[in-house]
């Protein structure tokens, strides 16, 4: 039975021909580059009536991103503990256009895991 090796590369591998050449040198059958989003363009806005906390809060989501970079499904995987912050994060990222994942140079549908850290609001 032939063994297939899969190489998972982060999105910044797109910028590095050296990384792709190295994957080919390892004789990998598949090169997979994870989808991602531009974080600054998709950053949520803190709701005015959200709890004012003195410590940072992190919310985590999983987004199913299609070949065109559009979110098809979103799942909350870890709440920040504040429903308003969770909703603001979901709304911002669900409307964001992602760079879709690619496999062997072809875009494909995939899950993208993201976390967003809310810092305390400045007084």
Blueprint (SSEs and pairs):
Layout: E1 6-9, H1 17-25, E2 30-33, H2 39-42, E3 57-65, E4 71-78, H3 83-94, E5 101-103, E6 106-108, E7 110-118
Parallel strand pairs: 1-2
Antiparallel strand pairs: 2-5, 3-4, 3-7, 5-6
Describe the protein's architecture and organization.
Helix content is 20%, strand content 33%. It has helices at 17-25, 39-42, 83-94, and strands spanning 6-9, 30-33, 57-65, 71-78, 101-103, 106-108, 110-118. It has a four-stranded mixed β-sheet, with helices on one face. Strands 4-3-7 form a three-stranded antiparallel β-sheet, covered by helices on one side.
Portion in helices: 10-25%
* Number of DSSP strand runs: 7
Order of neighbouring strands in the sheet with most strands: 1-2-5-6
Low-confidence stretches are: 1-16
Enumerate how many helices there are, as a single number.
3
InterPro entries: TonB/TolA_C (IPR006260), TonB_C (IPR037682)
Signal peptide: 1-21
Keywords: Membrane, Signal, Transmembrane, Transmembrane helix
Organism: Duganella qianjiadongensis
């Amino acid at each position: 039975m032939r063994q297939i090796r899969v190489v998972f590369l982060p999105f910044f591998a797109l910028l590095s021909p050296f990384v792709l050449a190295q994957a080919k040198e390892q004789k990998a059958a598949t090169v997979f580059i994870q989808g991602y989003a531009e974080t600054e363009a998709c950053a949520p806005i803190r709701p005015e009536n959200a709890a004012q906390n003195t410590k940072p809060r992190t919310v985590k989501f999983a987004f199913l991103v299609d070949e065109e970079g559009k979110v098809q499904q979103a799942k909350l995987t870890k709440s920040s503990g504040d429903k308003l912050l969770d909703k603001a994060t979901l709304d911002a990222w669900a409307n964001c256009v992602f760079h879709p994942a690619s496999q062997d140079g072809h875009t494909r549908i995939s899950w993208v895991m993201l976390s967003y850290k809310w810092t305390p609001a400045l007084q």
